[in-house]
Amino acid sequence: MKGIGLLGRKIGMSRFIDDKGIFTPVTLIKAGPNYVVNVRKEDNGLESVAMGFEVVKEKALNKPKLGALKKAGVPPVRFVKEFRYPGISEQFQVGQEVNVTDVFQDGELVDVIGVSRGRGFAGGVRRWGFAGGPKTHGSRGWHRRIGSIGNRTYPGEVKPGKKMPGQYGNEQVTVRNLKIVKIIPEQNIIAVKGSVPGSKNGFVLVRKAYGLGPQGRSE
Fold this sequence. Notes:
Blueprint: E1 5-17, E2 23-30, E3 34-41, E4 47-55, H1 63-72, E5 77-84, E6 97-98, E7 109-115, E8 121-122, H2 124-128, E9 166-167, E10 172-184, E11 189-193, E12 203-208
């Protein structure tokens, strides 16, 4: 995982009001404290740091994971993820407690990675935004169908990647270049502008933005 970041949970959405009375929709993320579980520096130049988040009871973990955490001198944590970045191994030590202000600051751009809400099996209209069939002039049973999916005699097959009804949601989504509106250091909470994937209390990963998104958005 490229970029320095932290693990956290999505608390929910709120809004901030600036001095001019303008409302800004924000998502609150509790991203700390994190604990450094492992630090690696390979001969090929690869450097990484494994972060742990959300302290739980020891009985909630299996013995191999619990033993590795005890060896690192960190409390039992539910989630462990690795971050890769040049020079990152020199910034952290095994067993260190990392808070929000140690990594992020107000006004910074971040990428947020989470799992989108699962919506089960969905048709083409909901899943892909298809227009559906005619609604009038004697049309019957075609209002939300996707229409023809095949070809003529040649090649006579459904092409791979054809948009079809199927499982919708419950997949990893990355939202890039969200601006940190405010940091609440006492509670390790980050307020980022806009929405992030996942449901309330969902697990998310917040990392420093290292490039513009598909639309070239910078804030």
